[in-house]
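tmp note - Ice-binding protein C-terminal domain-containing protein
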Amino acid sequence: MRNFVFPLLLCSAFVLPSAAHADAIDDFVLTGIYGNSNVITFSLPASPPGSGNNCPPSSPSCVPQYLLSFNAFAPVTFNGVTTDEELTFLTGRAGGGFYLHPTPQSSLRYFGPTLFVLNGEDPTFVPGTYGVFSEGALAPPLPYSLTITPETTAPTPEPSTLALFGTGLAGLIEFARTRKRRLS
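out:
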């Protein structure tokens, strides 16, 4: 019995106090309007890592990358077909909106407002509905409605204080019982 209790207590000492954590996710739905039937969906972390400051200190006229755009990679579903794609989100300084890069040689630009705010160098998406449009070289602009919504997830279960104290108390009781048996 003694050989079973100690590993169990040791395991609970490492597992129970560890905090569970889930990243917030935002869902993006780009829906064509006014006869445009395209539907594009993808999900990204609500606060993805930014692009960082890549300006050399000796160049005061350099604009840091995080003030212009940041890139993210995600599975994108375009009219029911899912592919892994790169997305580039632009700040207002770079014209706003975003790019989808289905292949390294092509990109689809969606013009519109800036979809995130900067927290230092890291962006945070702003939930809401935005009007954006894509423009082809020989085609008229196609209007879209972009909706960014936070994904609703169940709260991550964490052990209660009573469960933590109870586990420790049960371990102490078992330790006392084992010691008492050994002494008698």
